[in-house]
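Regression test attached.
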Amino acid sequence: MPTPFRHHRGVAAPLPVDNVDTDQIIPSREMKTVSRDGLGEGLFAGWRYTVPGGREPVGDFVLNRPEQAGTSILVSGTNFGCGSSREHAVWALMDYGVRAVIAKSFGEIFHGNCLRNGILPVALPEGEVDRLLKLDGGAEIAIDLEAQTVTAAALPGWTGRFEIGAYAKRLLLEGLDPIGLTLLQAPAIRAYQQADAARRPWVYTAG
Amino acid sequence: MATLFDKLWDLHRVGDAGDGEDLIAIDRLLLHERTGGVALKSLAANGHPVLDPARVFSIMDHIVSFRHGRGRNEARSPGGEAFILETREMAQKAGIHLIDTDSPAQGIVHVVAPELGIALPGLTLVCPDSHTCSLGALGALAWGIGSSDAEHAMATGTLRAAKPRQMHIRVSGNLAPGVSAKDLALYIIARFGADGGKRCAIEYSGDAIRDLSIEGRLTLCNMAVEFAAFTALVAPDAKTLDYIRGRVFAPSAAQEEAALAHWEELCTDPGAVFDEVLEVDAGKVQPQVSWGTSPEDTTALREAIPADASTRALSYMGLKPGQSVYGLPIGGAFIGSCTNGRLSDLKAAAEILKGRRIAPGVRAVCVPGSQAVSREAEALGIDRIFIEAGFEWGAPGCAMCFYAGGETFPPGTRVMSSTNRNFEGRQGPGVRTHLASPAVVAASAVAGMICAPSDILVAGGVA
């Protein structure tokens, strides 16, 4: 069951790049265990460490800068999380301590994976994201999911407002288990399948 | 008046899931060993049985070794064996279909699903793999999901989803000889951007789409995820129905008439409205090659890299703005993947390779998309053409499309690749991937530099 998300205030790291793909978020070579746990070390491994497989930090990569200690929010460009559907990207972010990603747009599968794991994906208009990307290193950002707002200590008077689907919002606010929720509709699913099997019998006879 | 996508959505809509989401029935779930074991294990740990194991298919492709003559548990990356063993064990326990590493049906999930008739028009199919959109080529509603959603689909036979917006891409005119579905896919992404699909369900239609083979349509729809689409679709036609007939999991003789009647209804009604419409003239598409680290970083072969190209991408690729990649020396070539690992792809490359040798200093690898493709190619002598040209001939799987640890091209190597992603490090740390069609990859391997098939064919070969 995902961790509920209501409000979050934390250190934000700017990644002013478009199309950050899930291969960058966690390279396949870092997905070493048949498990969801312990993937934070592999987060951004290609950018974060000097050699593949090594753990010596690249000094000027944003997450390695001293002022970014405790980063829990990422700010990035368009199409963040595009590419591979690997949920490991979200598990790695979660394990590292990231609770929200603010971007101009998101890869669709990554977006869904965030919601399933208690990470809030916030899509803001380009100009607003650009303002946040220009903040000094280590800047604090606050996100209120209930009110659907973003504020930053360094931008007094500024409030970013974001849209989020009603289901996505509830999933995060309440930390819901979607499987449990859907199983409440088991009778409707059975009724659908019975009617559908009469209409499309070939669907139900595979194998 | 409804679109094909409207019809497929309505047909699978179990009901309202609340909060603006629909509960959508899932007809087939596909798994692979990279996430299959994790999903099945987590499902079992939470006490959820698989609702209908006969409609779940687990196929080994991501981490299996591509070494010809590989062992049953042999992975291509250190520690990869655990994923194969875990997925096999969990699949057997759950009683789902298992197409194992040594099965004559094994291959890349998106190559195998059409071959076996697991993918059919009108079905909903999901898989924890982003290239599941490939299967829309058959008129199926197919999309990539995460591992948690795979668990949801197995436990409930459904997914919760908000109906996406819809886009129509009309491709008029004809692709010139030597221009392939891959070139069309890259051209569309380059022209409208990697975010250009706007999370829409896309329907492709038009003369050029009608003329594409089913394998070409699979290639085109495969790249929809690189275009930020929810998925892509091509309405089934006579070619589709011919393709399906006789496949292992296709409707039985007794069911065929009803199935055909149903499939005939799967089309967009005249006058149905889409949220977005893009027009593409197929006649303008030339052979493409990517220069950067996103599939949108693509031009026609001889075109210059845009002056405003991302410095980050150029620096990774060792290039300068304004330069053309045409004529650049290469160190590697790869033909295979769910994008271009089918028989027609191998045939297109073999036409160029026949009687020629790859250039010295180039490591070239061909990995057929499935055991069936491999067998058919071998029956036609295509494997000999590749091997005699100096290619390695591998065992089916995702292979060098993505690096998962293990051996690959050395850092800095410029690689021509028939795959779908040129992301930083995708084929290995520091490896510089250029995406292109199998024909362009084969020609470049022969020349030892990025070039067009026509350069090789006109020159009559390279010594």
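Expected vs. actual: identical. Chain A touches chain B through 62 residues (CB under 8 Å).
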